[in-house]
Design a protein that fits this description.
Blueprint: H1 5-30, H2 32-55, H3 68-86, H4 91-108, H5 113-185
Length: 186
């Protein structure tokens, strides 16, 4: 005896839901925005791990709090002690900590006219020198997007073909089962 029509209907609905879920997962996986996001998160994670291995974690580097001037003097004196304790045998860490402390102190001092002029020139030069890199990055991004679009189109076509074949197979099985039920009832 063949399957009941309700069972066949449930099988068809289940197949549709599975195909829909697979298609959504495929679209999510090949989305250029998602691909770039995963790459960015991976790079951030590696950079954070490298920073923590050189400088120590944030919990081991907690500093003083309060007003800017008071915290700078407290931070500088705290940093001196921390540099000697954390940089023992690691001159790179000592250099990075000293650079950070110097940068913090220099950020609190107003810029001179000459520094402002040089900073403007540096920004202009960076824009000029960086423009070819930006254009190259855009073209590479466009190529990746086009490649991903082609692959996504092909994958969607494959999924559509598989879904069509599966639907036809389920339809054929349903018709066979219906004919079996009819012949059993006759």
């Amino acid at each position: 005896m063949g399957k009941e029509p309700e069972v066949i209907e449930e099988d068809i609905q289940s197949s549709r839901e599975d195909l829909s879920r697979d298609l959504d997962a495929l679209a999510d996986r090949v989305s250029p925005g998602r691909v770039v996001g995963r790459k960015v998160e991976g790079v951030k994670g590696r950079l954070s791990g490298a920073k923590d291995s050189v400088m120590g974690s944030a919990s081991s580097m907690s500093g003083a709090s309060g007003s800017a001037a008071g915290s700078v003097s407290g931070a500088v004196s705290d940093t001196a002690g921390k540099v000697s304790s954390q940089a023992t045998g690691n001159p790179l860490a000592a250099g990075l900590i000293a650079f950070g402390a110097g940068w913090l102190v220099s950020s609190l001092l107003p810029a001179s006219t000459a520094e402002a002029r040089l900073a403007g020139q540096a920004v202009d030069m960076a824009k000029e020198q960086g423009q070819p890199l930006i254009e190259h990055a855009k073209s590479v991004g466009q190529e990746i997007g086009d490649d991903m679009k082609d692959k996504a189109t092909q994958a969607a076509s494959d999924v559509k073909d598989t879904a069509t074949e599966s639907a036809q197979h389920v339809k054929d099985e349903g018709q066979t089962a219906t004919e079996g039920v009819r012949s059993d009832l006759s």
